[in-house]
Amino acid sequence: MSLRHNVLRAGRPAALALTAVGIAGGLFAGLPAAADAATLHPDGYTTVDSCSSVAGSIHFTPGLRKTYARQTSAVLTGTTSGCSDEFSGALPGSGSFSAVLSGKASLAAENFSGTFTINWPGGSLNPSNGTLGVQALGNHQYHVSGTVTSGADTGSVLSFGYLTTSQKGTGTKLHPVTSQQFVNTAPLALARNLG
Asked: How many CB atoms lie within 10 A of CB 6?
């Protein structure tokens, strides 16, 4: 990672403050400042890093049963691609997303919490680490949300959605589901409130 990139990333709050001052001053100059203000999203969150594709697998111990919920550990591993950073632009190649999860779960209600790590493509950014929760939405779809607690973009919020596409096991007592394959339904994104 270049010294310039380190300075830019470390100086995000200062850079945003200077930009805000410029916008405030530009309000007296006319319409161009309105366009600048729109790109900052001062009224909410803006994405700072994202990956358009996440696909992989989840392994459960013990395996999941159809409706019988029990304490379960899960490990989610995925490959990321189509990643980008607000300062660097596109991040070529692939990276990884992993999470260590636990919760009282069944196939009917896979709700977990735990920790995650994002390894960004090409080592262009430090890994992002944090905590997250997984919420079942129905029809094999899930929503993931969390917070980055260390590494790249500390303090940002994590979100993405995924769909399970296949599984090993049927969910019975003799053949519990020990693993699932998934693809994302919404990009993996880290966002920061700039308002």
From this structure: 11
